[in-house]
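Researcher: First entry.
Model:
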Amino acid sequence: MYIGNNFHVEFADNNIHTFEITGRERSQNDSSSINFSAWTKTPVTLGDWKVIPFGPDNDLPLEIQETIFSNHLAPRILTGKQQMLVGQGPMLYEMTIQDAQFIKQPKQDKNIQAWLDAQDYENTLLAAAKDYYYTEGVFQKVFTDRGSRIGSSNSIATIEPISSVKCRLAYKNGSKTEIPTHVLVGDWSDGNAKKFDVYPLFDAKNQGNYPVTIAYSKFASFGVDAYTVPDLYGSLEWIKRSSAIPFVIKALTNNSLNIKWHITSPAKYWEQKAGILKSNAIKENRTYKDQELEDLKTEILKKISDLLSGVDNIGKFWHNEKVIEIVGASQMEHNWEIKPIEQKTKDFVDSQLLIAKHSDFATVAGLGFHSALANVGADGKSDSGSEQKYAYQIHNLKDVAIPEMIVCKTFNQVIKQKFNTEIKLGFYRPIIPPESGISPQDRLINQKA
């Protein structure tokens, strides 16, 4: 039974056997051994274009999506951060100086507001905020109005959201530089796109040159060109571990069986099997499907599970070869391991719950959200109101300025050029006043739901 994140459980003769796939494989990379700066040095050739991979296997957004969605904490945390950023919604403002401090002064501008209201700008900003907290980058489609093509200064008509899952930066095949000039939009679920649309990158200094462009705004990563590497990348393994443990507990409690063996297999073995399946598909003139590899995994692991179970297997043996591969300055082993698990169910469950607890805290910390705001207290209880209020104030003080800058960047570039103004688009986040300045009957603690 496949339960996600390359973790399998097989049942045989009243025993559970757990299988884990390790090593380098698509969507299962060892982050400690990845050369991040090499992403841009190994472009994918698609027709007339050199596509800059988004991640080692050009599938980082998909890996993040699969890892986050299957976790019980991560989606809620990232949604919480999005809600904290957006606050009570978009607003127009201008920076002013008051008491030697820069503050946002709300502004009203009928022309800018009319342009915003003519498009679904709130949904576009919400989508941008969602994408930012998953990848720390935002892709947006920018449409030019017809008037701009005959000399109108009001060049940009609308801005629409587009997911980073669909977008890849690219440059012309044969270009003298490797600087991205275009965005290819398509289905990258297998690393490459069979069909794709090509759009020029949005240029803030030359707006309106093309009917449709795509803007890419990001929080740049140190030493990595083109895309950004989101901070949550280093937490993916903890998130995967947090997601896998409930399945193990579920299998144990639902079936009242003992987990007898844990089998670890090398990813390289499955990569070779995938290569054979793809080759067979080509010979048979049909399209290869990822499900073929999953079905083969289930078949092979079931045979191993049968081999390790039952009284009829006396005299049978297991043969395995170990392969050592040198990757850069690192040594990587590719071999199968079969480890017996002592039948101490209570100890096993307790250890899994302990790992789950640490995984949850590692997930919260890695995603950059205070546990008081995520409602993950050290004892399983929610933190006090004062702790939550303090965490909220600190978050608003230091964790929303850069995300807001990036999420609203394209809108503000267009507003500046289109309306020749210093007014910007941002978000309104109310400041919670101190309880000491509020009459007792109006304090939060005394408010009825």
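Researcher: Second entry.
Model:
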Amino acid sequence: MDSGRLTIQQAIRLAASRLADAGIDTPMLDAEVLMRQILKIDRTRLFLRYPEPVADAEQEAFERVIARRLEGTPVAYLTGTREFMGLPFHVAPGVLIPRPDTEPLVEWALGWLEDRLDATIADIGTGSGAIAISVAAHLPARFTGAVVAIDTSPDALAIARHNAKVLLPQERLHQVTFIEGSLTEPIDQPIDLLLANLPYLTPKQIAENQDLDAEPRLALDGGADGLDLVRAVVADLPRILTPHGAAGFEIDPSQANTVVELLRTTLPDAKIAIIPDLARFSRHVIASRS
């Protein structure tokens, strides 16, 4: 071994120490993921190669991405990928990074769709396409309905279309449509299921969370109380939902009771429920008219 070079393990530990000193919550994980990205290997192979020296070019590339991480760039933007529902989604600074806490909403939707395989589904504020594409990818082959993904950002829709082409089989791809538009305005026919992970943070919450600095504010800011866009979509549910339709919203846990009341007022015939996220916080509110 070249004693003048760091081993892969040493390089990762030194980088993790720098990240920890900067207050980053997951320093070792971040350093490992970024080294794997440089070496283009999986986690098992990384551990096997721990004793090997890092080549000069690889060490320089690793130093560059660690420097960007120290500046606040999220790991997902540095690698260009974030896993969601078992699928590797391409992400870039123009879209919100998918979070595991959104997965229970997708899982609920898939359960709701089990005996509604001709349903029309709309994902409002699709971003990277994580919700719409994950639903489409995990539906049974006998699904005959349609998935519509809507976003105001053409850059986000370009990323979502790319993800659909990469992640969906051709026979399912033709059932997914991407539309540029504001909230529910493009929906001109009743749909069976609406899913929405809209901006729901307040300006104060955004300002207090430095981890969000690199993500698009358009995908985060929900107005003074975080519910401006949610209110607009809920108000349109009587027009866009079929008589036996359902809607699911991701929210901040502090907003759960308010959103429940909004839905009860707007859809008095619906059953309302709260679904927790992985940390058991009230993260999703659903309304089912069936």
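Model: Note on the second entry: The two ends are 67 Å apart (CA to CA).
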